[in-house]
Specification:
Length: 631
Amino acid sequence: MSNENQNQNVQAPVQTESEQFQIRKEKLLALQAAGKDPYTITKFDQNNFSANIKKEFEGLQPEEHSGKSFNLAGRMMSKRVMGKASFAGLRDDRGDIQLYVTRDNLGEEAYAEFKKLDMGDIIGVTGEVFKTKTGEMSIKVEKLTLLSKCLHPLPEKFHGLTDIEQRYRNRSMDLIVNPEVKETFKKRSAIINEIRAYLNEKDFLEVETPILNPIEIGASARPFVTHHNTLDIDMYLRIETELYLKRLIVGGIDRVYEIGRIFRNEGMDRKHNPEFTSIELYQAYTDFEGMMNLVEELFKRLADKVCGTRQIPYGDLTIDFDNWTRMTMKEAVKKYSGVDYDDWKSDEDAVKSAKEHNVELPAVCTKGNILAEFFDAFVEDKLIQPTFIYDYPVDISPLAKRKPTDPEFTERFEFFINATEFGNAFSELNNPIDQRERFERQLKERLAQEPDSNCALDEPFLNAIETAMPCTGGLGIGIDRTVMLLTNSQNIQDVLLFPTLRPEGGNGNAGNADAKMEGTCPNCGYKNEKIDFSKVEIEPLFADFVDFETFSKSDFRAVKVLSCEAVPKSKKLLKFTLNDGTGTDRVILSGIHAFYEPEDLVGKTLIAITNLPPRPMMGIDSCGMLLSAIH
């Protein structure tokens, strides 16, 4: 037996990635020392792609040669060395193709260099197209050039759940070894291009508006804040594009849209990322029903053009874009909860009904706000097929026009697919007096909840609509969720090339939490002002359910957070599973999602009252109360 064959039977020692990196680096250094540095190559004349070749020459018979040669370039994904002849797999932008590499065709020196190549190296080849005896389309390589050295080994398996976060962190490697990921993002691009084509055909003008805003508006979404050094002012990353676009409507651009990034300093889950892509569009001289018709027409077109069918698979479901349902919010709540909004004669009636049905009470307890909470609790998770929910309460619709026949409601809709909201639309409010009053009310409510907030009225927008804005239909659609649906992706991070992730190996600033609680900044030593405990109050919702005598007998315990997650359909609640020392896990819900992310609290020690009667919240029994305070 030859020495070569003997060596092939020897079990090689397992190498760590750092050892493989060093071996590959030494190969690179040897090439550079020999004057064959791949990084000095600036161009390769690539004149064809794998998929094109397979299509053009699919009629070749086994062992038939085409007589045509091409230059291909890509990443070497596999290599089987068999003496004087070898096979390798090349992956380019369009797919994979087999390379047939022999010492006779390349020459002895070049073939020896080929055998030293590693999987992941980027190469350029020239060769004739042919089919092997087994019918495999291949390139008979006549010339091979190393174009770039891969220093990191490619993983053998990159798809398992244990690697899912690493796939998001190392998207370049994910794209290399999982070709279907690239297809998702090609489809994303096709979806956005088709949306643009549709709107451009309807004479909409695409524009770009500022990302940095000089004021924080009074909306409920929390913005990211930065500082402009030259102007010496704080600025806020946009939470919407709406107000700028409506100023353009005032200016006479009757059909306008923008596709762009939106930034909200809020929670992350499988449907939410702090920065996301949306489209907002506005059309003068139409209303929210015109926007409904546009949505239905657009989604049917996307299904036809991008997916080739209007029956869209999503998980275990099939979404039918040929069938859209339309219901008012009142009708939907009555259908799924049995509660009739028209039976509420006052805000107090609505509060009573919410308590009877274990519905979370909003910060401002009006009939309209409570109707929206009923919708979240009873309706949204039932809306699987495409559904328009319209006629929203004016309380939660500060920018929508009131219904002439019922001023408690507005001409607004949201559309839902697979229990997820995909878009929001209005007959836009163009009464400047009403608009100012609503903004002032919204601002007052925000400042009551957050006295230190810097939010303010957007006077440039108000001044614009005081110049007269025509009746207008407006619409916003989440691009990322639309891509999720049309690519059958279950997590928003699957359709974002670089989703927001916690820094690897650390908890961001979570390690400074203790110092912050003590009132000392760990960076500069600044002492926070003293807290005035005379202003501490019991949470109103808690006070409604627990009398002082019961509260005075509370059993306070230190508890360890075993797990923490956001409660579906709730913007405020977190669900804690706690070790309270009894040997039985305790579940407590707490409305602190606006201040903490669930993952920040796992492993922490908290203080809880554990002898309170169970309280149903969002269909979950909360067995106690976590102590928290807002300063």
